[in-house]
Amino acid sequence: MMSASSAASILASLNALAGGLFLLSAFAMVATRQTRGCLLLFIYQSLLLAASAFLLAGEYGSWHLAEVGVVNLISKPIVVPWILRRTLSSEVYTRREIDQVLNIPTSLTIALLLAILAYFLAVPILGAVAPPFRSANVPIGLAGLLLGAYTLAVRREAVPMLIGILAMENGAFFAGIALSRELPLIVELAIASDGLVLVFVSGVLVRTIQHRIGSTRVGELATLREAASPREEETA
Amino acid sequence: MILLALLVVPLVAAGLSAAIPVRRAAQTVTVLSSVTTLILASIVAMRVAAGGVEGTGATASPVIAIPGFLSADALSALITGLVAFVSAAAAIYSWGYMEHTCAQHPGRLRLYYANYNVFVFAMLAIPLVVEPTLVWIFVELTTLSSALLVSFEDTREALEAAWKYVTLSLMGAGIALLGLLMLFSALEAAGGGTYTWAGLLAIAPHMPAPLIATAFLLILVGFGTKVGLAPLHTWLPDAHSQAPSPVCAVLSGIETTSVLYVILRLLPVVRASPASTLIHWMPVVGLVSVGVAAFLLLQVRDYKRLFAFSTVEHMGIILVAASLGSAAAHYGALYQILCHTVTKSFCFFAAGAALLSVTTREIASVRGLIRRAPTAAATLLLGGLAIGGAPPLAVFLSEFSILKAGFAEGQYVIAGLLAAFIAVAFFGILLHINRMVFGAAPDPRGEETGHSTAAAPPLPLSCRAMLIVGGALVVLLGLYLPARLDDLLRLAAGAWSR
């Protein structure tokens, strides 16, 4: 009995380590200047999510979480990059400098404030769940969600924006696995396959934009607004 | 079984429209399947309105296909019926409209119809599936299947609109996902039970307040983005104006409502939970949308954006009505959903007709439409009057019932502001439509830019047919509400205010 509880506490501290690295990868995603780096960070983050799911599965003795881990391990780090490579030309990844609306030190400061905000948002939630499930996953997942949304807001390049969306989903799951351990497998599989459709459809859209406009700098697309100058007539 | 059939038919149609390389096969399959779903959805609605099936006797007993996954109560039946109605009307309208738009690339039509059917499938699934996380997946699927429909015309603007639509909707979906997972933990913390709308409602009083409150707010922000609640509406006028007109009719007419449905499902849960004070803030959230949309309506330059902003306004009105306390207000909200869907889809059919006739979306370059394209002008005018809420028409009646319920409840500030914003929006819509329809004959610039004053080419037959049917329904709905439909609205409102 003693050994079981000490094993659980080792798993819990390993999980905390995975959480710390997860948060670090979210910060790095805000700071990185390369599309390829963004994708790599997303892969690391997904691996950490899977690791956390396995560790929590061991800690709580829950098969459902182990399934979550397996589904995540296959879909995000392997299939998502594969689909992205199939739908988009390699030119998208070779671009080194991808700029943001704000400079990187400012971005990191805002990211830090968002992470602190996530912690304060998580405190009342942790107070409401039963003690064994008060893990660091909830504030870290919330922070991952907010940082993903922030990346999406400040990036102008299509692929890093897409990865921002995927990072948000990672964050939601990172918190979700600590909160809801008995989610049916069918839901799990459906969400994973939905992520793949998401990457495929957005990939096709980005490819069309690239063909039509000649770049994937979607931040430059800004003709649609109320006070726009009368734009070219379109034929229906 | 009938609910399963409702979902299988559009999926089969999607497969067939993508697979059969025969000319006009995709159109035929889509029209046939969407008419079939309309018939099936009407049967479901009739059964639910009649008070249940197979002698259960209880009022509002749901049609159940798979317990815990698929079932239809009055609210689901109403939304399903409306989805089926709009998708059938838009499928018929698409026949002529898309053939006209896609004259150069007839092969692309198969892509259009395949996506269209998946889109319809996802929207039908939202009200019928009762497992909240599965509902989330179908909401996500509506975004993904309609993204390529929004960008279908392949112009720079359409691609911009589609990209904004996809990124903002998916961002919202990520936030809503955490909300739904948290809702599940609220259910577990309260002692467990099945994770369905009914299961949540049953156990709501025992949920810890911080969990249900945070979950609801995350879902409100997340799905609110997709519904187009201000200030998260920025993508909506773009996507709802750049998509091909029949797709706009579906997006504005019912897609936003079918996502709002998820938020509406949670209102009674929150009301029954210890976090019920949140409900008192919901009319404010709704009013912000109504107000923002009403004032933005005044300065639009594009007549399709005009109707898109009107959708933001109506989503706000429905949310205000649904979060008031009385059964009369809830009835008003559901009546408003019905009237808005029928009227708004008609408005976009009319806008599409105008676009085919004058080939521009700009309000400023359309003048004296009544002389050039009388059908488009007359329907546009009827649509504008109807959606603005002119007296004998349906939206007026539903808005009036909401305002009456608001005043009866003593919510004078909310109802008063709502009435004022509705008046501003009415003025805005009619100002633009009036100029387009009756404005002085086109200025000389018209000839230079190629907009001749000659009569416009005739509209495709299927478009004219849907304009007549839609117009007739808009007028009829104001004069007469079938008893069964009224029963359905009452049942749904009753289940809500329990």
Gross geometry of chain A:
globular
Most extensive interface between two protein chains, with residue counts? A-B, 58 and 63 residues
State the separation between the terminal residues of chain B, measured CA to CA: 29 Å
| Low-confidence spans of chain A | 228-236
Strand content of chain B: under 5%
**Biggest β-sheet strands, sense, barrel of chain A:** none
Contiguous helical run count of chain A:
8
Write down the oligomeric state. Answer: heterodimer
Outline the fold blueprint:
The complex is a heterodimer of chains A (236) and B (498).
Chain A: H1 2-31, H2 35-60, H3 63-87, H4 91-94, H5 104-128, H6 137-154, H7 158-179, H8 185-213
Chain B: H1 2-19, H2 25-49, E1 63-66, E2 70-72, H3 74-101, H4 108-128, H5 132-150, H6 156-189, H7 197-203, H8 209-227, H9 236-242, H10 245-272, H11 282-297, H12 303-323, H13 327-358, H14 369-372, H15 374-388, H16 394-408, H17 412-438, H18 445-448, H19 461-479, H20 483-497
Antiparallel strand pairs in B: 1-2
Describe the protein in words.
The complex is a heterodimer of chains A (236) and B (498). Chain A is an all-alpha fold and 236 residues long. Chain A has one domain. Helices cover 76% and strands 0% of the residues of chain A. The longest helix of chain A is centred in the N-terminal third of the chain and has 30 residues, at 2-31. Chain A is globular. In chain B, strands 1-2 form a two-stranded antiparallel sheet. Chain B is built from 20 helices and two strands. Helix content of chain B is 75%, strand content 1%. In chain B, helix 3 runs antiparallel to helix 19 and helix 10 (245-272) packs antiparallel against helix 13. Chain B has one domain. The chains are: A mainly alpha (236), B mainly alpha (498). The interface between A and B is large, with 58 and 63 residues.
